[in-house]
Amino acid sequence: MIDLSVEARSLLATLGVADDALTGDLPVRSPVNGQEIARVATATRQMACDGIASAHAAFQAWRLVPAPRRGELVRLLGEELRAGKSALGRLVSIEAGKSPSEGLGEVQEMIDICDFAVGLSRQLHGLTIATERPDHRMMETWHPLGVTGVISAFNFPVAVWSWNAALALVCGNPVVWKPSEKTPLTALACQALFHRAAARFAASGTAVPDGLSVLLTGGRAVGEILVDHPDVKLVSATGSTDMGRAVGQRLAARFARAILELGGNNAAIVTPSADLELALRGVAFAAMGTAGQRCTTLRRLFVHDAIYDGFVARLKSAYATVTVGSPLEEGNLVGPLIDAAAMDRMQRALESARALGGVVTGGHREGAADWPDAYYVRPALVEMPEQAGPVLDETFAPILYVMKYSDFDRAVALQNAVPQGLSSAVFTTDLRQAERFLSAAGSDCGIANVNIGTSGAEIGGAFGGEKETGGGRESGSDAWKGYMRRATNTINYGTTLPLAQGVSFDI
Ligand code: NAD
């Protein structure tokens, strides 16, 4: 077995992580071969509270730095990410089990959001609004909000931090990050790159307050400290719906702001008019890519009965031949599940599907002899008689439930008839169907695509979903507003005091 700990340590050193950060109680395993590749320390309550206090102190200074200047720090972070792209991408592959192109793609996404945030740093604008009172002006102003907590999941170990951090920093907020306990090494690397950018920024004349970017490694208990701390004004939490339900309620109890990015149960509809070559590729990537471990992974497929047999037969052959194996080797398209628990959950879901009459192709473990401590699996395609049981849940593994439909509106209704509302797609060349799918009566998801799979979003759009996906929005469009507070200002430049709505109060 290749020793991945040596390579991981060397990549971390290249990225600026000191060796003494790599000891502690929390073992880090690579899903590629199951090996323990390092250890890190769980932050104690005291360390977490000190980190939050330093971030809160940093806020007092950072909020006063002009936004375009704050953007310059993020520009430098983008430069460090460009310089570190190959090392960080490789570390993502080792720690999260992503293919080389997906590991690099994740870092590219970080670079893209930094570029976006730099532009944004000159566009944090409010409105001027017509007022009913003479000699008055009404406007809105956007101000920094305060310490932003980021809790992230294992499957996008670094991109999710950057979506939040790049925006939060230009908006004037310090960031305290609690990464997944399964992927703390890539988080240490990001923090080291941030420090490199901060040193260059300081050298160019503006001090970077200590505590502008704080990293707290550890598990759920560390996340809970962030969630409950009164000085953390916003928590952006990415992970399972169970996590979001717990976090959302605790934040609501103290009236803190939440951006919740939770589980998805994404569907696509393949209509008779679809370009079937394109649909096949779109479905295959969305369902099997990243071994089904994306929040936007395609999990449900509705195929019109006129094309069902031919299309599903071709899909099955793609499932049978897709290359499953080490994500560190070029050519393998499906890497490992994150751990044994993920494999157990997948097998349990397949059992429940069988019990409801589902016919399963694939789904079995592969390479156990070569990789006894890693969990590679042949993606599963399950033909279901109806949408029931496990089809209504997100199982974070490559399972695609396939169902037949005959009426388009019924297919749209079924696609909406699950608790989650993240991503959706229709494959069609029928303009009416495409537009109906995108209309108010169509998909109820935060992401609705035509002739593109459910996964693989770009940073320019707002990212997030409805219902049990949490309702949060991150990344592009006007998602920045979630990181700022809005003040409405009315200015009277006249000599009288007219009251709104014609109210009089003459003393
Ligand atoms: P998870 O819920 O197990 O953990 C996510 C993070 O939350 C971890 O950092 C964990 O330590 C922390 N956490 C868990 N419970 C907590 C609590 N009560 N209080 C504070 N912190 C807590 O998720 P995971 O297994 O790492 O990731 C997979 C899940 O994430 C899937 O459901 C997937 O759909 C979802 N996800 C969603 C998006 C999105 O943008 N919607 C993106 C990526 C992943």
TrEMBL record:
Subunit-level organization: Homotetramer.
Family statement drawn from the similarity comment of this UniProt entry: Belongs to the aldehyde dehydrogenase family.
InterPro entries: Ald_DH/histidinol_DH, Ald_DH_C, Ald_DH_CS_GLU, Ald_DH_N, Aldehyde_DH_dom, ALDH7A1-like
Record protein name field: aldehyde dehydrogenase (NAD(+))
Keyword Isomerase: no
Molecular function via GO: aldehyde dehydrogenase (NAD+) activity
Lineage start: Bacteria, Pseudomonadati, Pseudomonadota, Alphaproteobacteria, Acetobacterales
Keywords annotated in UniProt: NAD, Oxidoreductase
Record PROSITE patterns: ALDEHYDE_DEHYDR_GLU
Record-annotated Aldehyde dehydrogenase domain positions: 25-486
Enzyme class name: oxidoreductase
Gene3D superfamilies: Aldehyde Dehydrogenase, Chain A, domain 1 (3.40.605.10), Aldehyde Dehydrogenase, Chain A, domain 2 (3.40.309.10)
Enzyme Commission code: 1.2.1.3
